[in-house]
Amino acid sequence: MSYVDGFVLAVPKANLDAYKKMAQMGGIVWKEHGALAYVECIGDDVPYGEVTSFPRAVQAKDDEIVVFSWVVYESRESRDAVMAKVMADARLKSDWSTMPFDGKRMIFGGFQPFMEL
To answer: Per-residue confidence of the chain (117 residues) as pLDDT tens digits?
Structure first.
């Protein structure tokens, strides 16, 4: 069964084009190194909840938009191998201070699917 990395982050609306450019390169790199799928989504219907919500989870400000992303791999082992290659790829080397979003508020993790239809 496959393996999935998931990400939720807040991107300042003013930086959305820069984020899209960065994400495009990320998708190319992940796929070249073996990811099966790479998806980036801009929040369209993500209301601010009273207790929990995507905007609350990433402490989104009024001038930011929530981005939800995921990468699919063949397996956990494949993910670990792909991720090692991605992290070593010079095309993704960046000064974190120039990122188009606040990486400290990004949520990410690896997930083992229990059902695929």
So the answer is: 899 999 999 999 999 999 999 999 999 999 999 999 999 999 999 999 999 999 999 999 999 999 999 999 999 999 999 999 999 999 988 766 688 999 999 999 999 999 989
What pTM was estimated for this model as a whole? 0.93
CATH architecture for segment(s) 3-92: 2-Layer Sandwich (3.30)
Q: What is the spatial distance between Cα 19 and Cα 56, in angstroms, rounded to a whole number?
A: 20
φ, ψ of residue 36 in degrees (nearest 5): -80, -35
Q: Which residues of 49-68 are buried (b: 16+ CB within 10 A; e: fewer)?
A: eeeeebbebbebeeebbbbb
Map out the domains of the chain as residue ranges. Answer: 3-92
